[in-house]
Design a protein that fits this description.
Elements: H1 2-15, E1 20-25, E2 33-45, E3 50-61, E4 66-78, H2 79-86, E5 90-92, E6 101-131, E7 134-166, E8 179-186, E9 189-196, E10 200-224, E11 228-250, E12 253-255, E13 261-265, E14 270-271, E15 273-282, E16 288-297, E17 300-301, E18 306-318
Antiparallel strand pairs: 1-10, 2-3, 2-18, 3-4, 4-6, 5-12, 6-7, 7-10, 8-9, 8-13, 10-11, 11-15, 12-13, 14-17, 15-16, 16-18
């Protein structure tokens, strides 16, 4: 540990003696349009099972005014949908169970857009070696004063989400370990709805969102003697949102055991408020890998509102 620290300090100190010239230091000179191709995302949402899928995101920056964003996701593997298709007694009214689908447009209006000076580590070279079955790496870097752009923005938009849900994980449906119940309508008459364990249905939510966004942008490039061009760039966005769902729709169910009965489900266990924290990262000036992580509580059903998702994609920077 001590040896590694001494080595890192020596490499850094040695690098500080290198002459360099700043060729660009403008965090406002970023690509306006970014199109993210997301071949992989994962979503875990309480009673709504585990989903894997692909999607796309679009970012369009309006200079100092703000930015516009669009996020679309579609599951290619939906464990809740698989469980539903295996249930032969209960089906949705349409006879088909759709995989998870999500679409979200939102916009950010800049409240504060300032630049401050900050030392940034610019990596000049990196190397790695193996010893004793382990791989070690070291980097030579130089600390250069650069411009850090910090943005505080008002963040607002909405999203629409369709997903399967596990009725067995909803507290209002729980009667005992094997039978689930909720007040519903059978052939136009109010009655008590009994569902077998493991029954899945559809939920559709329309959610309004609002909060604050905190962005940091760096775009520093130098030309160092003996090393050539090197840079320290980055774009991170952290935002916190409150969520409100004016629309929460639970699908009707059909029972195919003997006569076909339609059950119009309207659970009182609807949760209309929620929150989320989001962190996203990309390169501001060139095409590269991008990331996005979210955590929070989605509106929908009580007792199963916690969610977490992560998105890995490739950002194509344009314009």
């Amino acid at each position: 540990m001590v040896a590694a620290f001494v080595l890192a300090a020596a490499i850094s100190a040695n690098a500080q003696n290198i002459s360099y010239k700043v060729t660009e230091d403008d965090p406002y000179a970023i690509k306006k349009l970014g199109v993210h191709i997301d071949p992989y995302w994962m979503d875990v949402w309480g009673a709504n099972s585990l989903k894997f899928g692909a999607g796309a995101r679009v970012d369009y920056h309006l200079g100092r005014l703000g930015s516009i964003h669009l996020d679309i996701r579609k599951a290619y593997l939906d464990l809740g949908e698989l469980n539903t298709r295996e249930n032969t007694e209960w089906v949705s009214k349409s006879g088909k169970f759709k995989k998870f689908f999500y679409i979200e447009p939102h916009i950010a209006f800049h409240l504060s857009d300032k630049v401050k000076s900050q030392y940034m580590n610019v990596v000049l070279s990196s190397n790695s070696y193996s010893y004793g079955g382990y791989t070690y790496s070291s980097s030579k870097y130089i600390s250069v004063p650069g411009s850090l752009r910090k943005i505080i923005a008002l963040h607002a938009g909405f999203y629409s989400l369709t997903s399967t849900y596990n009725a067995g994980a909803v507290s209002s449906f729980a009667n005992n370990d094997s039978i689930l119940s909720a007040v519903g309508t059978k052939n136009g008459k109010d009655t008590t709805l009994f569902l077998p364990g493991g029954t899945y249905g559809h939920i559709t939510t329309g959610v309004l969102l609002a909060g604050f966004s905190f962005k940091k942008i760096k775009n520093l490039w130098i030309n160092a003697d003996g090393y050539g061009n090197a840079g320290h760039t980055g774009y991170t966005d952290f935002y916190i949102d409150l969520l409100f769902a004016p629309v929460i729709k639970l699908s009707n169910m059909l029972q195919n055991a003997g006569e076909t009965n339609e059950w119009k489900i309207d659970s009182e266990e609807k949760k209309r408020l929620g929150w989320r924290l989001t962190w996203a990262k990309k390169k501001p000036m060139r095409s590269a890998v991008s990331y996005k992580f979210e955590i929070g509580q989605r509106p929908g059903l009580k007792g199963g509102s916690f969610f977490f998702n992560m998105i890995f994609g490739y950002n194509i920077a344009a314009m």
